[in-house]
Amino acid sequence: MVDPQGHEYGRIEIRRVMNGQQVMYKAIHRGEVIGWAHTLRLACYKVHMAFLGSMRPGGAPAADWGELTGNGRRR
């Protein structure tokens, strides 16, 4: 899979398992296997969601208002 700038961000590999009886799709994002799928559509979805997830900033929000830490006031 290729981003709008032409850089590869993911790959789907077709594998035959169980003595060739079943087709599986290996989902790879940035060289790391992120999962397997029974359909090509699901494998593409997994890779694309990993790509989108890699673009957001990491870490916790600047202020959680006590909701995540359990220190918030309850009414």
What does this structure look like?
Helix content is 21%, strand content 29%. With 75 residues, it is of the alpha+beta class. It has a domain at 10-55. Strands 1-2-3 form a three-stranded antiparallel beta sheet, covered by helices on one side. The longest helix has 16 residues, at 40-55. The chain is flat and about 55 Å long. The model has no long low-confidence stretch (mean pLDDT 85).
Sequence of secondary-structure elements: EEEH
**Widest beta sheet: strand line-up:** 1-2-3
Helix content: 10-25%
Beta-strand segment tally: 3
- In what range is the share of β-strand residues? 25-35%
Q: Let me know the average pLDDT.
A: 85
Rg to the nearest angstrom? Answer: 19 Å
Record keyword descriptors for this entry.
75 residues, 21% helix, flat, single chain, alpha+beta
